[in-house]
Design goal:
Oligomer: single chain
Radius of gyration: 17 Å
Strand order of the largest sheet: 6-7-8-3-9
Largest sheet: 5 strands, parallel
Shape: globular
Distance between the termini: 34 Å
Number of strands: 9
Structural class: alpha/beta
């Protein structure tokens, strides 16, 4: 069965401010969704609500027709979320951080697969360095290496291209495109465009649903 994420009449607030309300969309397998809007319009809040890290004031997030909140871990295992912050442990090495992240995701991968993922992200030779000595772009690439090892069909990525150089941006674009072209799903906040050879692209703009 192909997966579908559906949002029904979702509304979120931050403090006493209504960010958006009555938000509806459906994202089938093989789709890429851009979440657009001005700073403060609720883009990050929406992404966190979609993956269960933020509780909306009203509405539902459905995964294959079932309430994602009620599905609990069964839904969270279908999602990989990368936020603004890389969520890395600075005293650990790149490969140790990847081990830790994959354990949290419930993904089993051998040492060789982890090394290949880091090398693919341009980190060959940096695997055993403490993350604190890496540049911001290198730290971002350590975090993004998870995408090469996960089997989660739904990727929710908040500004994934931040701090990346041109070569790394191109590589990440190809990774996301390959995931969607093979029937995965991706939701992004970004100013970068990802070219697909199949599937479909959707856009929603927050600030129009208050």
């Amino acid at each position: 069965m192909d997966n579908t994420l559906e949002v029904r009449r979702l509304c979120c607030e931050r403090g006493d401010k209504r960010l958006f309300s009555d938000l509806n969309f459906s994202l089938p397998a093989g789709s890429l969704l851009y979440v657009e809007g001005a700073n403060g319009s609720g883009k990050t809040t929406l992404l966190r609500a979609l993956c269960g890290l933020f509780t909306p004031e009203c509405g539902q997030v459905l995964w294959n027709g079932e309430d994602s909140h009620k599905l609990g871990d069964a839904f969270r295992g279908q999602v990989i979320y990368l936020g603004h912050h890389n969520s890395l442990k600075l005293d650990l090495t790149g490969i140790e951080n990847l081990h830790f992240s994959l354990a949290v995701d419930g993904v089993k991968a051998g040492e060789e697969a982890l090394l290949e993922a880091l090398a693919s992200m341009g980190l060959a030779g940096y695997e055993d360095l403490p993350v604190r000595v890496l540049s911001q772009g290198q730290k971002r690439r350590v975090a993004l290496a998870r995408l090469l090892l996960t089997e989660s069909p739904l990727w929710i990525l908040d500004e994934p291209f931040t701090a990346l150089d041109v070569k790394a941006v191109d590589h990440l674009q190809s990774i996301i495109a390959s995931h969607v072209n093979q029937g995965g799903m991706a939701i992004l906040t970004t100013h970068q465009e990802v070219a697909l050879t199949s599937g479909q692209i959707q856009r929603i703009r927050l600030g129009e649903h208050v």
